[in-house]
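Model: Ready when you are.
Researcher: Fold this.
Model:
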Amino acid sequence: MNIKEIEKRRFLLQGQLDEKKTQKERNKLGQFSTPMTLAKSILEHSIPLLDCGEKIRFLDPAFGTGVFYSALLNATGSDSILSAQGFEVDPCYGEAAKELWKETLLNLKILDFTKLSPPKRQSDCFNLIICNPPYVRHHHIESEEKINLRYLSSKACESKISGLAGLYCHFLCLSHPWMQRGGVAAWLIPSEFMDVNYGKAIKQYLLQKVTLIQIHRFDYEDTKFDDALVSSAVVWIRNSLPPPNHKVLFTFGESMHSPNMSRLVNLPCLKDEPKWTRFPSLGIREKAENHCLSDLFEIKRGIATGDNKFFILTKEKTEHYSLPDEFLRPILPSPRYILANEIQADQEGLPILEHQLFLLDCRIPEEVIRAKYPSLWKYLKSGKGTTSERYLCRTRKTWYFQEKRLPAPIICTYLGRKKGGNERAFRFILNSSKAVAPNVYLLLYPRDTLKYYLSRDPNQIRRIWEILNALEPTSILEEGRVYGGGLHKIEPKELGNVNATRIVNAIPSYAKISKETQHSLFE
């Protein structure tokens, strides 16, 4: 058997099989093939973690065409392998891989790993699991299947798995009973689990059920998959409880063998840290009685209309359809149309922008509209069966009712890229207009204490806005998450965690104002 020749054939086969499927079909099954160079690096990094001289019992529960198996044969040779098991759900790849590897000891079955029962005997378990599990987001998993997956995964890893978890999380959990005691696993998965809420259960498993050896995170500018915009990480674990005083190695960079950065982190510190992507570039978060933005602002996502093309209109369109002014609210365009970080208003409160838009916001019953507003009724009828059937609209009590949002004095973009230097991924925009904002923004509404302070000195909102835009960019980035290609994202709760001590220090006698506010509320 010439493994180099087989690998050449496997590489060509992978390309041919991928071309037979559309991007949509492959996305649905999460089929993103691991580059051979990366597979080799993962295997070379994993094998030394096994006991010296130990024969390998290999498992890949999402086999594909066998890139990890090929890398294993390259790294060790067949003499070091006692057994090799693979599972592949897609017959298109599975049958071709069976033919390709038929002269080796591989036992490849075309089955859905998530529906299989684990081995009952330790001798039938595996001491080396290497896998790039399917990257299928939760909303692509059927409801009934999701319920079953959550039950089985939670049982397997003894941690309650969220309904928002992607399929890769279930593969990680369900593989646990297949691992030999003391065995090693390496998982190539999206790094987002390190920061998002649904990742809490996964992190609990990694900290309590197994020994977390290392997490290597690749530079987010370097997406390891040409056909998937995802920031990747490799997670190494051992199937044993963590030893006393255990430290986890965090590494970062293009190479896991020669990382740009590395840091050992005590296990107890990880239990208290919600954002693991701060490591290794940043250290343990200092515990201090600092104020955060959520102390000063109620932070909400902007309006999700359900169909922007239907509900957000230009002035020309509102006139063309003769829509009543009383049901039109000014709404801000997307950030690319707002070049400055301040929105001025005209005498009527409309934003002074070249790209002016209006939200159709009507909250009266259809029968009233039909009787009193024929032009509006005609327009709404045009959305029946199309816009009215879109997910968000059909889940509302009345399909055209919009979320209640007031204009916010400060808004923040929630998606952005940081291209280097002092460029900021997120922008805080001072909004002096009566315009509401769509859900591409986060809205900052002053809470009672700050509102009371601003009522006494309204001009101070500008000072607060200036401080927000002067905050150290890292202090905001570390609270959000990053995707492949350097796309940063921050959610309302994450923005609320940003340190706001500088703002509080800029407010004279903040503690006194807080007490005055509380007193006035209860008078």
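Researcher: Now this one.
Model:
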Amino acid sequence: MKKTYGVKIAAAATVAVALLSACSGNKSSSTGSTGAKTTWSRMEGDIISTMDPSLITDAISGQAATDTMAGLYRYDGSDLQPDLATAVVKPTNSGKTYTFKIRNAKWSNGDAITANDFVFGWRRTVDPATKSQYAYLYSGIENADAIMAGKKKASTLGIKAVNKSTVEVTLEHAIPYFETMLVNPAFFPQSEKAVDQYGSKYGTQSKYLVFSGPYKLVGWNGTNNSWKETKNNSYWDKKNVHIDQINVTAIKDPSTAYNLFKSGKLDDASLTGDQAAQAKSDPSYQGVKQASTFYLEMNEKKIPAFKNTKIRQAISMTINREEYIKKVLQDGSIVAPNLTPSGLATDPATKKDFSAEAAKTGSQYTKYNPKEATKLWTEGLKEAGLKDLNIELLTDDGENSKKTGEYLQNTFEKNLPGLKVSISTVPFKTRLARSTAGQFDMVMGGWSADFPDPITFLDLFTSNNSYNRGKWSNAEYDKLIDESKTTYANNAEKRWDVLLQAQELLTKEQGVIPIYQRVQAHLVKQGKISGLKTTPGGAYDFVGATVKK
């Protein structure tokens, strides 16, 4: 049974559609009479960054974790289902205590998965020494904030093993979306034996891991452009894992992806640019709307001029988002009027979409208006005591990212007098590292929903959040986000209202500059796969999917 608190999941929104399910009405077992393996070949836009559950931050590594690891719960499309837990539990103690029973399950090395693996994994993630960027998700669990602040030890976190098969979690206050967070790798169990054995190598290559999920990662050495995921026969639900092997290749060039699909070497190719536009007329084309927003972050610590609201607004208003999507992305993505994507959540009272409601206020700051942008820019520079400004735009080295950088460079320099933009193009993994370290002036980033609630986006830009890499800070915004988590945690309508206020404030201030919500263009081999679903965050769920040989 799936429960929702306050903000309800909108069916269209969570991207929890049965992607590809229409490709075939026939289901097949994982092996036929010949015993031949069933395989599915897909691609990613870049390589895996890490497989340490405490350190995973990007969607590529997150997909690999979804495939190879298990948590208490797992999404089956939009339905939250028990995974290593035996049931989706109801909290007690006014929503502050959760008691999970752990099913009889094993790691890929044959060791039993126990309650202690959850205790160890959670403590390791929240411990400041681990430097997990997702540790902030633990806020609200007993003592988590004090631990992250270095005031208490990780051993005081509100989680304990009652016995080998029972985990008890204590919250400081009710968290409306707590159960939906448990599908995030940051909340996965971790084998203390494996972490101790591999030390600093843990999570850096497939041989330095043990797996609890449907598949095992094979042939990943930390930097290679291809890897395999083979069925994990130790997984508790292996009977519903019908695809024996998933082959994954990292492809940065959309023309290469297109050609590999056409030559039969890829079953599923994701495309951008000219190839995406060309693919729309192909019978194999599928456009998948995702709960993902892409945005520009401006480093206020490194470039003090970015602290000026008019300068941030001017940068936003000089971007013709419709033109950018049409000429650069060409994949059917849609304009993002604010940070929170459309289709993520609906008003508990009116059932209206959160993003649509929020866009009623402040949306003028995300609309193309070069005349007003120039005016605001000139005023902002004067207020900052500047006549001109030189900045560097950090981008990935993929073809689409390069074109994005060139488009933004052109529109900024054309409409904002005195602004000079240089472009730094680096590998995806390097871009992530530099963003995390604050080594950028301006960078294009993106976020996919971890769970179907606006807070998964809005929480990112509170003053002390590790993902607030541009260091925008607003005390009123922080207060609103805190109230949504505490004061109004059990008041659905009031909580909705303060989240709307927070989104409207972020949009007005342009603390980050939202650009587009992704609609991913795919070419999918017709008639080969059925039953493949996606989660609210847009990750594939291969459990239950079948393919024809």
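Researcher: Key takeaway?
Model: The chain has a mean pLDDT of 91.
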